[in-house]
Amino acid sequence: MPSASELLAxxxxxxxxxxxxxxxPACGVIVEGDRRLCLDCWSQLEFIGPPWCAGCRLPFxxxxxxxxxxxxxxxxxxxHDGVLAGIGYGDVARTLVLRLKY
Length: 102
Ligand SMILES: [Zn+2]
Ligand SMILES: [Zn+2]
What we know:
mainly alpha, 2 domains, binds zinc ion
């Protein structure tokens, strides 16, 4: 049995989408679905994602587990420890910047 909130989720989402069309979190272009990247950003991001360094988001070639750090972060732990969990859309932009850098 779906719960009441699940039954409401569909219509509510339609109303919300009408008022606030979903936008690409990276560049703000209107996209089809909530929290979806536009094609441009997606093509830049598709190789980015876990496994990566928990400190600087440097992608790893293989999964080292949650919270794993790259050699550089192990040697010099990032000063902003604990900030990552609170980062929202700004983090996507940061990931894009990192992606361009590496
Ligand atoms: Zn975008
Ligand atoms: Zn790192």
